[in-house]
Design goal:
The N terminus is likely disordered. Helix 2 packs antiparallel against helix 11. 34% of the residues lie in helices and 18% in strands. Strand 6, helix 6 and strand 7 form a beta-alpha-beta unit. By secondary structure, the chain is α/β, with parallel strands linked by helices. Strands 1, 2, 3, 4, 6, 7, 8, 9, 11 and 12 form a ten-stranded mixed sheet that branches. Strands 5-10 form a two-stranded parallel sheet. It folds into two domains: 153 residues, Periplasmic binding protein-like II (D-Maltodextrin-Binding Protein, domain 2); 151 residues, D-Maltodextrin-Binding Protein, domain 2 (3-Layer(aba) Sandwich).
Length: 356
């Protein structure tokens, strides 16, 4: 090959290489998008103040439509804990978050010297033992004050709605209970099932102690109107014990998160009414009797919870420490993950009502 021809060949080869590289770069740039580094905004949602603790605050807006797309998820190991009502979410939803976002490691932490619950979780958050907390009740005025004394604020972000179900012995035959009858039972004014249309059997109300968690706090404030439990109430350590006592006691009654009660085989979830004109069950009718369980189980009446027909419902909150540090970023990211369509679908699968 002559020198002139060799030079022309080299130039042609170089031009072809440049064109191929350019086309390849263009294809790659279309296929893969570089996401800019996320910076934590100073405020991603309305700060809940003590004046509106009884109402759901404005929620954050998630940055993506599924776990993978949510931005602002920090890298590291983050401790969290709180409400026992959240157990199904921790089991089902949080495990899905971990699979999709392995950089966002979550570690559930139980309190050492007090029973687990919403109040315990918020206390641990205030004490710096948790990055964020899970609660089945709003933040209390005293908790806001403690946070402010320590130089930061608390934020509550609602992520789901749930029902509280009332369990009775499966052999009791009553149409339902009104809210006023439920209050009278737990304050000691009604002590026999024949006073509410049932058989002549003494009522044995069971409950966890008031300091145990958000469900008890909610029940006392919303159902009992802030009144004390009656002397007839027997206290149990946890929901497992409470449901077992009801199953073993002909006159037993207990209350807990609906996902913990409705699917059980050994008790009966009772219908509840604002008055005696309409009783709404926490399960989808018809009732599945114990003898058909566990081959068949009662399913949650999520539509009644969603529409507000069932009288005892409440919000579930992520409690975030607003201190401008990585704990705040972790709490807000966790709430944002739960508020995505993927998170809300998983929450519903766990037995709770989506708020989006």
């Amino acid at each position: 090959m002559s020198e002139k021809n060799e030079t022309a060949f080299l130039i042609s080869s170089l031009l072809i290489t440049v064109v191929l590289v350019g086309v390849g770069f263009w294809w790659l740039s279309k296929r893969f998008v570089i996401v800019p580094k996320y910076s934590v905004p100073s405020n991603t949602s309305t700060i809940t103040t003590p004046s509106n603790t009884g109402n759901p605050p404005t929620t954050t807006q998630p940055d993506g439509d599924d776990f993978v797309k949510v931005q602002g998820v920090p890298v590291g190991l983050f401790s969290y804990g709180g409400s026992t009502t959240w157990a199904p979410i921790r089991l089902l939803v949080d495990s899905a978050i971990q699979a999709a976002r392995p950089e966002f490691k979550l570690r559930y932490v139980d309190p050492i010297d007090i029973p687990p619950g919403s109040g315990a979780g918020i206390k641990m958050l205030l004490d710096g033992q948790l990055s964020f907390a899970q609660s089945s009740r709003p933040i209390q005025e005293s908790e806001f004050q403690q946070a402010q004394q320590r130089g930061f604020n608390l934020q509550q972000i609602p992520v789901a709605i749930e029902g509280v179900a009332i369990a009775i012995n499966p052999n009791l035959n009553i149409a339902g209970l009104t809210l006023s009858q439920l209050k009278a039972i737990y304050t000691g004014q009604i002590d026999n099932w024949n006073q509410v249309g049932g058989p002549d059997i003494r009522i044995i109300p069971y409950s966890r102690k008031i300091e145990s968690g958000g469900t008890v706090d909610f029940f006392v404030k919303q159902i009992l109107g802030g009144k004390d439990f009656g002397a007839n109430v027997q206290f149990v350590a946890n929901t497992t014990e409470g449901l077992q006592r009801v199953a073993d006691s002909p006159g037993g009654i207990y209350y807990a998160s609906a996902p913990e009660v409705v699917p059980q085989c050994s008790i009966k979830p009772v219908a509840i009414g604002r008055d005696d004109r309409e009783f709404v069950p926490p399960y989808k009718p018809p009732f599945v009797p114990p003898q058909l369980c566990p081959a068949q189980r009662n399913q949650l009446n999520l539509e009644a919870f969603r529409q507000g027909k069932y009288p005892i419902t409440r919000y579930l909150f992520v409690i975030v420490k607003q201190n401008g540090q990585i704990d705040q970023q972790a709490g807000e990211a966790y709430a944002n993950l739960l508020l995505t369509p993927q998170g809300q679908a998983a929450i519903e699968k766990a037995g709770f009502v989506r708020i989006r």
